[in-house]
Design goal:
- There is one protein chain.
- The chain contains one helix and 24 strands.
- The strands form three sheets. It has a 16-stranded antiparallel beta barrel with strand order 2-5-6-7-8-9-10-13-14-15-16-20-21-22-23-24. Strands 4-3-18 form a three-stranded antiparallel β-sheet, with no helix packed on it. Strands 17-19 form a two-stranded antiparallel sheet.
- It is globular and about 65 Å long.
- The chain starts with a helix and ends with a strand.
- Keywords: Signal.
- It comes from Flavobacterium indicum (strain DSM 17447 / CIP 109464 / GPTSA100-9).
- This is Short chain amide porin.
Length: 458
């Protein structure tokens, strides 16, 4: 028992220290017995965004045409609690809201003006809710560990970034296509099912069997098979399977929770190579001459992650880099347009060439085809004994090639993290661009968006 307690304490310390704050300690933790092996830990975080965005052609906000927009919104407001009621049993509960703006993001039924006007009083919902049992406990000197669990969970395989923590991104946010099912056949990147996780020496594994949420988009009937477009329609959904395996060459990462760290700020030496998959039969449909055909979803990825101190130790510099390749097959010409906190609607008075993706900040985000995404950041030197304010500039590049579009896109993100107290209090400024397709074979330039985020988490 003593070894287990020491291991648990070390794990909690690694989790908190990995956030880059020397003062955070064990966080908001309530011990339920004197030994500390029965406890509840709480994590709360808010992410507030201010934006200045160029709108897609053909956009209206409110009752006015809009070519640009400035606003402030609530990207994430969350609370997570997990309880270790014995060394083998754990329960995890995670709830909150996302994406509330001045025009949308309110609870179902909110509209117009007044106490329940458009965008007001969003509904809380569960992001995670699962139970877990440690079949083989991690022990010092033992190479193998295994835990199994079930419920609404985040062990969705595919890639490191598919299971990313939203607390410690290198960039201001995830690129979104890392969650390829987002809010279609999943609930905000989660599905209900069972999972197994663990380690074998330097190998970490995660596998799950899940029941996808039902989708029911009706396919458009065409007379030419080459024009058929797959849409999400799984009917009585069949079980999905997901998995991710990575080899951790240097420091081992904690796997108490599924959330993968985006940047350790030089507090660990991490070099991992991983590969993953997600597959679900009969998940999309096309219709040709009235004949409906079902298609599976088959998604695969390979990625590499590096986070390590650089140079003289007293300068506290660090490099973070991540690169991932996705191969997505949702069926013929599947394409999904997404814009984070999109406030735009179609402008009926617009007479020019509208963006194929639609109004606001929509862009081709997910589809049958391939995506290559790479990000890198550098933590600038700081010789103070207990540095608080740290600066980390970064850059990210995305190349998308979707079967539904004859021209691929190249996108960039440029930004800087200003750490006031590690990831626990930070400001992030980022500029991003997105392609404006006016035809499947034509990109009529790129639009930009400047974002400023204030994040605090405890």
């Amino acid at each position: 028992m003593k070894k287990i307690l020491i291991a648990a304490a070390s794990l909690l310390s690694a989790i908190s220290f990995g956030q880059g704050s020397p003062d955070y300690g064990g966080g908001l933790k309530l011990n339920l017995n004197p030994e500390g092996n029965k406890y509840i830990r709480f994590i709360a975080w808010n992410q507030v965004w201010m934006r200045s965005s160029q709108m897609n052609p053909g956009t209206m906000i409110g009752d006015a045409s809009a070519s640009a927009q400035e606003d402030i919104g609530l990207r994430r407001l969350r609370i997570l609690a997990y309880a270790q009621i014995s060394p083998r049993y754990m329960i995890v509960t995670h709830f909150g809201i996302n994406n509330q703006t001045f025009t949308n993001g309110g609870a179902a039924g909110t509209a117009g003006t007044g106490g329940y006007g458009a965008g007001k009083k969003p509904g809380l919902f569960f992001h995670d809710a699962w139970n877990e049992y440690a079949v083989v406990l991690p022990k010092e000197g033992k190479p193998f560990s295994l835990s199994i669990g079930g419920g609404l969970h985040y062990y969705m395989g595919l890639s490191r970034m598919t299971m990313a923590s939203t607390l410690n991104f290198l960039t201001i946010d995830a690129p979104i296509f890392n969650w390829p099912l987002i809010d279609n056949s999943d609930q905000f990147a989660r599905q209900v099912g069972i999972f197994a996780k663990g380690k074998y020496n330097k190998l970490e594994y995660r596998f799950s069997l899940n029941k996808p949420f039902a989708t029911s988009i009706a396919p458009t009937n065409v007379t030419d098979a080459s024009a058929a477009v797959a849409v999400d329609n799984n009917g009585n959904a069949r079980w999905s399977k997901a998995g991710y395996v990575e080899y951790q060459f240097l420091d081992k990462e904690a796997n108490l929770l599924p959330f993968k760290v985006g940047t350790y700020l030089g507090t660990k030496k991490v070099f991992n190579i991983g590969a993953g998959f997600y597959t679900a039969p009969s998940s999309t449909k096309t219709s040709v001459n009235g004949v409906v055909e079902k298609h599976p979803i088959n998604l695969f990825s390979g990625d590499i992650f590096l986070d390590m101190p650089l140079g003289a130790k007293e300068k506290k510099m660090a490099l973070t880099a991540y690169s991932v390749y996705y191969n997505y097959d949702f069926g013929p010409k599947y394409l999904r347009n997404i814009g984070i906190m999109n406030e735009g609607v179609v402008d009926p008075t617009f007479t020019g060439n509208k963006a194929l993706a639609g109004p606001g900040n929509l862009q081709p985000m997910i589809g049958t085809g391939s995506i290559w995404y790479t990000q890198a950041g550098f933590l600038l030197p700081n010789k103070n004994e207990k540095p608080k304010v740290r600066i980390q500039p970064y850059v990210a590049y995305t190349n998308k090639n979707f079967d539904a579009l004859k021209t691929g896109s190249n996108q960039f993100d440029l930004g800087t993290n200003l750490f006031l107290d590690g990831h626990h209090a930070k400001l992030t400024a980022q500029y991003s661009n997105r392609p404006i397709y006016t035809a499947v074979d034509n990109i009529d330039g790129y639009k930009g968006e400047f974002l400023l985020q204030l994040q605090v988490y405890l």
